[in-house]
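We recall that each integer encodes one residue's backbone shape. We quote one record:
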Amino acid sequence: MPERGELVTLPGAVPPQDDASPDQGVPWHFGDPFGEQRAAARSVAVVDRSNREVIAVPGEERLSWLHLMISQHVSDLHEGEGTEALVLDSQGRVDAHMVLAHASGTVWLDTEPGASATGARGDRQSLLEYLIAMKFWSKVDPRDATDEIAVLSLLGPSAPSLLESVSLPAPASLYAVAGTDVLVRRMPGSFDLLVPRAERLAWWERLTNAGARPMGSWGYEALRVEALRPRLGVDTDEKTIPHEVNWVPSAAHVAKGCYRGQETVSKVHNIGRPPRRMLLLHLDGTADTLPATGDPVQAGERVVGRVGTVAQHHELGPIALALVKRSVTPDTPLTAGGASAAIDPDSVPPDTPGLGREAVRRLHS
């Protein structure tokens, strides 16, 4: 079995310099992080994301059981389909985020390293321990599959043709899953490849030999920030609810019921006004240092949010995701960790229209 950090030792690979990075064990970049981003934007790049944990859920009741455990509607998830989902606590706050792929009688869940959830007694458990504890008499058998499966991601407009060149399918619809030994799942802006971990290096070489440029987590994270895609534990804190980070409806279904935290999801969706919202900040590139994850976002002396992912983008320069109070207007001058910051107005999500109290207010106005 190859070591999980095998690709970090490839020629030209630079490991993360921050010991606290959630991407320890995968390459940070390959010598030219901006060139890697440009390749992903204009042609195709491949990223090692094999630090993600993978959980396999086989068993004849896998769909009906998962339907009760997670925030997404999966009771009718067909073979060859995938989705995103969350585990919430009883107050509707996000415990875990995962991406699903249903294939060959198994639902594969890939999630962040060290994913955990709040147990029945209020204690923190690994996500796998939580799922096992909730098994009861259901005909399912969740197991750790991280030593079986590794995740690689392809980004860029040429990704479909490159997949074809290495005899892999390129699913046409979002979250569709295809393949046998290697599963290919279409994601927003990318394709995830779930490859046998023992063949990870061989597939990396096959993809790069076919024309995919190696890209590290630096470039992947910068493009994720540009696309306003949150990352659990970086762009979220212990109070985050799904609406604040655009996980409704992509990862949380507002109408299915029967899952922990559903009341909060439904209530906030109907009101249409979460207390905070995730925004893209443009940072002052002349500052000596950039903010760090967890630093305060301030309007004058008032703390109005927290910094999430901070990235250096090949076109936008220094940018960050931040959770900011929804009362803050897009033209408000801000500082993030002491550096000047401006809200990208295109990142401001609209309030949910025509629902709940807002609908009643308009009816009587």
Observations:
- The chain has three domains: 6-52+147-226, 53-144, 274-365.
- The radius of gyration is 21 Å.
